[in-house]
Protein 1
Amino acid sequence: MNEEAEPAFPGARLAYDLAGCLRFYSRLPVPALPGEGDPHAVPDFRTLPRMLPLAGFLLGLPGAGVLLAAWGLGLGPFLAAALAVTAGVLVTGALHEDGLADVADGFGGGTTPARRLEIMRDSRIGAYGGVALMLSLALRIGALATLLDRVELLAAPALLLAAALSRSAALAPLALLPPARADGAGAAVGRPSRRTLATAGGLTLLVALVALVLGLPVPGLVLMLGLGLGASLAVTALARRMIGGQSGDVVGAAQQAAEIAALIGLLAAVPA
């Protein structure tokens, strides 16, 4: 784990955590850093998520770049938004979408916590999961396309902020709930410390400040932050009631809900 690695350069601990976030949350080939130790070890979520907002920002860059390129080529708002969301899914390997589908199937099809957890472990996608995936993609593409239509190039920093914010907000289940199963990913990675959560929150506000400088309106930023966190807390409360805790799938569902809510929140503050 990163806390045990011997730092080889100034800021090494933060760099190790950033690299760990990028490896865990994406398919990017991130090489081992000097002095990092085993880059494939189980991540230590007591400290690693402090760099998650920055990692989310970086993971949003391919989608933002595709969005700007497609818009510049005159492909229109819908196709540009669809291509941008596709780029994001490819970068992450549909990690969060997979969690959302599993949660939808488990919560929708199970009648007891044990049965819900059993369904969530099934690799097959059922009707609830399929509908959840379709709605998630449609809502994100629709929100981005509408933003392009209203604010044009400012949709790119909005996408970057949503990518950073949603991943920070998705820490809520890990911070507030116990693992739903003793042998799951939620139990293996550990619980973020208060200092880790504070650092992640501070970096999220820093990304929001960058978006503000780039031209996003203050009311929109406030709604993005508030609704994004609120959506994640709603998923957290639902997970507590349905399975009595959190899992990796719940975190993925929280991220999807937070990203959708953040983009819609910004739309609500931008005149049609």
Note: The CA atoms of residues 44 and 86 lie 29 Å apart.
Protein 2
Amino acid sequence: MSKIINKADIAQYIDYQAPPTNWHQVNQAQIDQFADCTLDHQFIHVDPEKAKATPFGSTIAHGFLSLSLLSHFAEEFALIIDGFYMGINSGFDKVRFLQPVNVDSKIRAHATTLSIEETKPGQFRFKTQVSIEIEGNETPALIAEWISIQLVKED
């Protein structure tokens, strides 16, 4: 679960490593739905028979599917400032896809809060380093530096 923190304690949470999230299994139905949403129907994602003949041996999740799952995982690793009423995804400073996620693989997120700064009263900018671990694999699926904004009710 997300961790609620007080504004006065922000400095204590720089370099905070959240516990790893729960595992999530990426299945073919999810990959197919993502392909439909993004109009990316490359065979390596949606054709299990053709994908068997590739070096991956099966279909693989889109890199952007793995990246988009950070929103799901953030529900477990996020730090939430007390008084929070809205969060905004502000983008990424860095994203690297390091390892494909084969169909039916289990993945989970690891997150470290790199910085939290109040950019104006009631608005906090978070920079979080995240990685997606693939069960049984030393190389993560991806690493990223995620920028998000939290709007917090003023006292």
Note: The first strand starts at residue 3 and ends at 5.
Protein 3
Amino acid sequence: MTQTPRGFDPHDSKDALSSQHPGAADAPSAEEGHNTRPPSDGTDLVSGAPADSPSAQRVETPREGAPAAETRQVTRAGMVWVAVASALVVLILLIAFILQNQEYVQVKFFGLQGSVPLGIALFIAAVGGGVLVAIAGAARIIQLRLAAHRARVSRQAGQGTRRR
């Protein structure tokens, strides 16, 4: 049965190094000056009791002076930076797509006919679809704002008649 030495912290680079490289555990640490490897006879490091006994159970105590976990605050500037970075990545991928699809294709639209590079034709189609979605979204937003305005006006009118 493998035992973990008391005070082992897998997030500590020194402890993580010794757990990843078994040979590194044989060398004494510079701070402690002793071997951190568990005894091979199956006894507990703290109590000296057999590892299977209830007295071998150890209680973890938090380290003194350990820094508290930092909480990151999301700011508008951070969100804008992420949005701009994401948009630049998409734009670079879009440019690569257009450059790789330079073959001319015949395009027909409502009686108009022409020859356009495939990448440009697909880009124009995607922008057209985005415009249609934006128009539908704007119409729905206007519809919801009008409904909220009507509800607000009727609520204010109802409160005005009760006061008299």
Note: The two ends are 84 Å apart (CA to CA).
Protein 4
Amino acid sequence: MSVHFHKGDLADGIDFGEAVAVDTETQGLSLVRDQLCVVQLSAGDGEAHVVQMNRGSYECPNLKRLLADPGIEKILHFARFDVAMIRKYLGITLAPVFCTKIASKLTRTYTDRHGLKDVTRELLGVELSKQQQSSDWGAPELSDAQLAYAASDVLHLHALRAKQTETLIREGRLDLARACFDFLPVRAELDLLGWDETDIFAHS
């Protein structure tokens, strides 16, 4: 594993190919209260790029250009949250998207354990550490442990997408998954506008 740290913006000229794994680290899990602190990315080549945001300005043209590119698929786990955070702080609508958590729920129907650690362990035989998940991502300086944790969350998403796509095809659910992925920007917008706890499709 190789981790490249970037302060404020992604370095220019990095080629992520046709799909980039994306994750975010925030000060908490509230779209209203908590700020975007870190965006991490990987081309699935064993290298991760960790971008620490300049909070308050979020001027990062290289990162925004990459994330806004409609020709590059963005692979995320629980994309609903990351899509909303990136929409709020970077003004970018992530599309197209592949969400490995949605894919897990559509294929691993024999379990209710769909966290990244559980999915990666079962499908890839890789054990992820979550020790830094609740650390202070708003700190001025990130620790080596934080950087390693951030990197680990994106390094395996390409492999998960490949495995899950095979199963989605086998089960005849790939089109359904794609429809769910395409809806994520709308779901994120509803979350940002205050409908995060309301099922608007429910009868009551």
Note: Strands lie at 2-7, 19-26, 36-42, 47-52, 73-76, 97-99.
